[in-house]
Each structure stands twice: as structure tokens, then as C-alpha cells.
Design a protein that fits this description.
Elements lengths: L1 H20 E4 L3 E7 L2 E6 L3 E4 L5 E7 L3 E4 L3 E3 L7 E11 L2 H8 L3 H21 L6 H5 L3 H16 L4 E12 L2 H73 L1 H16 L37 H6 L7 H7 L26 H6 L1
Helix pairs in contact: 2-3, 3-5, 6-7
């Protein structure tokens, strides 16, 4: 029993010593065995490794490819057009001993700070070199510029035990103070283009309106011309009908036109005519006793006859001189009736002379 009690602490101590002297190196890492801050060994192969307990320490570093994003860097190419460049780099720890000696206990954080300064310096140097313009940076030729930056950064980062694998630009922008001016210029250009489009549209609209107005004028003119032709043909047909009717019975036609003239002349209320009694206008209103008798009241023509007559007819006596249908020279004079004249007392010549 005493023996078991004595051996148990020894076993525990041995287990602790073995556990503190054995460590595992991951395949994604590299390890340094330090003794009082000095590098004693390097463990690069994955698996179990040993160290002296309580005297030696193990420091592990990532052996994978790491990424570093640089802060935005303002560069001035040879055309003096300032640009803000945002880049990133891919790197790995190539020599852990040299890396430890260069950065000390700062580790990865200290190494990335120093590597970021190297990258920014090389980006400014390459992009600001002679012959490099902003168009070159923004074109496909920037791949060659990135290769130059990578080579320069690799040479500068080698003393840190770091291998720079690649450097690439994520984005290239104008400075904030230049962005406002650029946006204002772009806005002005777009407004100018919009004004040009509006002007071209208005010009096209004016052409369409002018074409439409011309078409309207042409159509109206053509319609007026056709209407004048139709009106002329209708007038010719009317005159022909009147001529044919007049040729069939001139005396009746003259009588009919006289009645129509009487009706039109006496249609209004209180109509008064001041005409000589001997006028031909009253040929058909004379009494049977001769021209010196009393005039019978006018007999209006039937409404249907007045409505059927075309507009523009004149009295038989007056219209005959205005229209070819009623030419007095061509109209045969009606024969006077041989009726005995009424006996009238002759007026005394003395009274007529005295008056």
C-alpha cells in the first residue's frame, strides 16, 4: 500500500513531463523550438516532435499562402491625373528562421505592417514612373505593371523571410475631390446630349407638322377644285335645261318667269315699287282695256313653283338682259291683242299748259 502511494505521484510527474516534451506539427504550419528566446531547431515536417520540458518553447507559423489588402494609395501618373489605387498581395513565409529574426515577437501582425509599407512604396514608384499614364493603368497593359510591382516587392520583402507571390489591383478610382468634378462634367454632357435629342425631336415634329399642313392644304385645294368643277357642271346643266325649256315654249316660259319675279318682288310686307307703268315688267298685269286702266292685284305664284325655281332667277324684263337665256333680242315679242281701245275724254290742252 505504501509502495503504491509512493509510485502514483511519480507516474503523474512522468506523464506531465512526457506531455510537455511532445508536440504536434500540423501540415499547414512550421514550428520553431526556442530555448530562452534563441532558436534551437526548426520543425517543418508534420508529425510528432520533442522538446525539453519547461526550458524550450514552441512557436508556430502558418505555412499557407496568406493574403494582405493594402490601404488605398494615391498615385500620380505621368499625365498628372491623380488616381486612388486599392491593391492586394499574396505571400507566404518562406524562411521561418529569418522571419523570426526580422519581426521578433511581433509575428504576423508586425510582418504585414512592414510588407504593406513595401507594397505601397513600390506601387507609387511603378505607377508614377515615366511613360505610365492613367490610361495605361486602366487598360489591359496594367498586367505588366503588376508584374513589375510584384518583382520589386519580392526583392524588398526577401530580408523579412517572406516570399511575395503576386500583387494585383482591386480597383482604381479618382480622388473624392475629383469625383465631384467628374460627375458634374458627366452630368453636363448627358444634359447636353438630352438637349440635342430634344432639339432633334422638335425638328422632326416640325417637319411632320409641316408635311401634314401641306397635305391638308393640298387635299382642301383638290376638294375645292373638284367642287368648283361640279358646281360649274351643275350650272351648265341648269342653263341647258332652261334653254331647252325656253326653246319649247318661249311665251309660257316668259310668263312663268314674270310671275316668279312678281312673287319675289312683292314678298315683303308693305312692298312698294316705283316703276313706270309702261315698263315691260307689267306686261302681264295690264288690264284687258289697255295700259291706261287700273292694275289688278298681283297674284302670287304657287309655293311649289317658287321653290322649284333655281336661285338667282331675275324678273323677265330685267333678267333677260343679264342672262343669255332671256336675251331680249332672241325672245319673240308677244303679239298685241287687237281690242278696241276704250273711249276716253281728251284732257283740255289749256289746263295742261297752265299746269
Amino acid at each position: 500500500m505504501r509502495k503504491l502511494t509512493f509510485l502514483l505521484p511519480i507516474v503523474v510527474i512522468l506523464i506531465a513531463l512526457v506531455g510537455s516534451s511532445v508536440f504536434i506539427v500540423d501540415e499547414r504550419q512550421k514550428a520553431l523550438v526556442l530555448q530562452f528566446g534563441q532558436i534551437k531547431s526548426v520543425k517543418e515536417n508534420p508529425g510528432l516532435a520533442f522538446k525539453i520540458p519547461f526550458i524550450q518553447d514552441v512557436v508556430r507559423y502558418d505555412d499557407r499562402i496568406l493574403s494582405l489588402d493594402t490601404p488605398p494609395t494615391e498615385v500620380t501618373p505621368s499625365d498628372d491625373r491623380r488616381l486612388v489605387v486599392d491593391a492586394f498581395a499574396r505571400y507566404r513565409i518562406a524562411d521561418v528562421v529569418q522571419f523570426r529574426q526580422a519581426v521578433g515577437i511581433g509575428g504576423i501582425r508586425s510582418a504585414e505592417d512592414r510588407l504593406g509599407g513595401i507594397l505601397n512604396a513600390q506601387i507609387r514608384a511603378v505607377l508614377g514612373s515615366e511613360g505610365v499614364t492613367s490610361n495605361t493603368i486602366l487598360s489591359a497593359d496594367r498586367a505588366a505593371l503588376m508584374d513589375r510591382i510584384t518583382e520589386e516587392a519580392r526583392a524588398r520583402a526577401e530580408p523579412l523571410g517572406i516570399e511575395v507571390i503576386d500583387v494585383r489591383l482591386k480597383q482604381t478610382n479618382l480622388p473624392s475631390q475629383n469625383l465631384d468634378a467628374t460627375f458634374a462634367r458627366m452630368r453636363a454632357e448627358r444634359e447636353r446630349e438630352a438637349a440635342d435629342e430634344i432639339a432633334r425631336g422638335e425638328e422632326a415634329a416640325q417637319r411632320v407638322r409641316a408635311q401634314a399642313d401641306r397635305t391638308v392644304v393640298e387635299l382642301v385645294s383638290e376638294a375645292n377644285r373638284e367642287s368648283e368643277i361640279i358646281r360649274g357642271e351643275a350650272d351648265a346643266a341648269r342653263n341647258r335645261i332652261f334653254a331647252e325649256a325656253f326653246g319649247q315654249d318661249p311665251e309660257f316660259f316668259e310668263f312663268y318667269r314674270s310671275l316668279t319675279a312678281y312673287t319675289r318682288s312683292l314678298q315683303g310686307q308693305n312692298s312698294t315699287l316705283v316703276i313706270s307703268p309702261d315698263s315691260e315688267f307689267f306686261n302681264y298685269l295690264d288690264s284687258a282695256s289697255g295700259r291706261g286702266g287700273t292694275f289688278p292685284p298681283p297674284v302670287p305664284a304657287p309655293e311649289s313653283s317658287a321653290a322649284d325655281m333655281p336661285e338667282g332667277d331675275a324678273p323677265a324684263g330685267e333678267d333677260a338682259a343679264a342672262t343669255p337665256d332671256a336675251d331680249p333680242a332672241a325672245t319673240p315679242e308677244p303679239e298685241e291683242e287687237t281690242t278696241p281701245a276704250p273711249e276716253t275724254e281728251p284732257e283740255p290742252e289749256d289746263e295742261e299748259a297752265g299746269g
